[in-house]
Specification:
Layout: H1 24-30, E1 37-42, E2 45-48, E3 70-75, E4 81-87, E5 103-104, H2 107-111, H3 116-134, E6 145-148, E7 153-156, E8 162-163, E9 168-177, E10 180-185, E11 197-200, H4 207-219, E12 229-236, E13 241-249, E14 264-269, H5 270-278, H6 292-301
Parallel strand pairs: 1-4, 9-13
Antiparallel strand pairs: 1-2, 2-5, 3-4, 6-7, 7-8, 9-10, 9-11, 10-14, 12-13
Helix pairs in contact: 5-6
Length: 305
Amino acid sequence: MTNSNDMPLAAKPIDRAAHRRSDEAWLDTAIQRSDTLILVLRNGEPFCAPDGGLTWFGPEALRLSSGAPRLFLGEDKAGTPVFALDLPPRFDLDASLIAGTGSFNDFRQAAARMTAMDANCACTARSLFLWHQSHRFCAKCGGQNGVIDAGWKAQCALCGAEHFPRTDPVAIMLAVKDGRALIGRQKFWPPGFMSCLAGYCEPGETIEQAAAREMFEEAGILCDPSQAEYIACQPWPFPSSLMMGFILPAGNDEIRIDSAELESARWVSRAEMREILDGTHGELFCPPPTAIAHHIMKVWALRDD
């Protein structure tokens, strides 16, 4: 059975220790502890060792950039404080104290080589830092926001309004009918790459309703939201989505794509889907196991019904 707690980027989370976030004195001491763990990002990219694994620093990371925004991620099982630093976009790696020890890597590629806990920490840090970068000003009065609660909140310096990090619910789904499943591709994807369809949940609808609506809008396939089968969910830091996966029985099989959303879509059999998943199809390939789309496709492909 697929379990969201085992999903890549969500598995093995640390204790977020939210009660620590407003204790500035404790945070200032904790980040200086010799055993503290600090990961660093630049422009949403984590710093990784030459072997691709996430690099953890101690308090010496504070010397990399004075005043870099910090985020308290929580405490590990041993009670060790875990932080993240957001280095400036123009941080010069080659002229820094860590030159030659690693590189800032694309998150998708880096996450595939991280341990479960490392991937969850990096995912969380990326989402929060990107949110702060795009929410520098108050939506209520236009004043400048300041970062509070150890990175988990923003507050306007003028009117005092508090702003909380957003998480955008996204339905990602596989329509199925008569032993076949519908997959599609966007025009900017690499040739042969296909995946589940997906779309944002709108105000006033359930996530199941969003899944059915998006399926019809993008591919012309009618689905009953009451028949939606929930599979799992996954945090997805691009920039701050929560992907909620479904399998939907389809009421028709005639595809009518919205060319603004998809370049193409097609029905595939279970045998084809298995080949796509294991990389032997010859024509098509799909997202890697770090993405929930892979797991939705796999759940259906391995069924006997």
